[in-house]
Amino acid sequence: MNYNSVLYRKHLLSGGSFLNWLKLLFVNGGVDRPYLPQALTVSQLSFLTIYLRIVEQVRFGGQIENCAITKPPIFIIGHWRSGTTYLLNLITQDHNLGYVSRFQAFRGSEIFLSYPDLAKRWTHEDFRGQRISDNIIMSAYSPCEEEFALANSSVYSFYHGFYFPKNMKEIFKKWALFETVDNSERAAWKKAYMKLVKKVTLGAAGKRLVLKNPLNTARIPVLLEMFPEAKFIHIYRNPYKIYASAHQLFQRLVASLGLQSISESEISHNIIFFYQQMMQKFLNDRQMIKPDNLVEIKYEDFVGHELAMLKHIYNQFDLPGFEDAKDNFSQYLQSQESYQVNQYELQAETIDTIIEAWKFAFEAWPYDLPDDIKAIGIT
152 with 20: CB under 8 angstroms? Predict the structure, then answer.
């Protein structure tokens, strides 16, 4: 299926900086021939909106620079497909909390303060309907990962790996693990990320932000340098489910957003590598977080006990407003009662690979192969 034609009328980078786009083309070796039409669209739209970004910088550049983050963010972390979106959508029913919306991340990352209505309209026109990874219905106002906004406004995002998948692994090492960057590049990432957080804080009228981003699972040290009192909610899930669901997600993202071609085996290899590196790094780094600032949730325990878990989070983080938002939480949970999860199959050799490569995860969080994943090739 051509997911691009179904779900994304225009490439996500169409809402980004033209200069950023040129840099990405240079550092990633350009695009493959079949994707030239998408690349031309990105070039055209990012160029035509230069004026809007200039206006935004002139009008709000000083305010963004001087914005003080008085309420440390709440970071929702966990590997892709761990339930981070479900938790984000639920907790942001509390209107005392701010978040990055789709219109701020997709088509308005650099113009949403000056032209919010335009950014919302473009996002609604270009990115409507179900989320690409599952059956969740999204709108321009829906909460979103700030990594998409970072990818549109800078060269410092892992999500460029979905756009230039031939370099996905190296981009992950660079902007998720910070393994292959020098001090100046690390400082540049922090500057770009802080600017984004300040900008969203301005748009949220100073509310405490909830930022959901799987990549931040591997970024604990750098995030604590920036926000020493930040709160972290880590949600984890059965690794077999993670692999099966993430494999589908990565396939669809590369198919819909990729400007280069890679094989399915490369995608599979990357998922094994990313989970291994990301989760091992988190297990090593989580001791850096003050105990009162970290809550860890097992997804399978969270589903069905959401209100109790939320109350625990509010109590541990000393957050106000749980009782006031309780009805909103309940209404959202009721709206999700008919949601149908995806069904998956795994080959026997894939199961063996997961057991071997992710042994550390099964030691940290004991899981068995779930009954609702069909194992192919096992007698």
Answer: yes
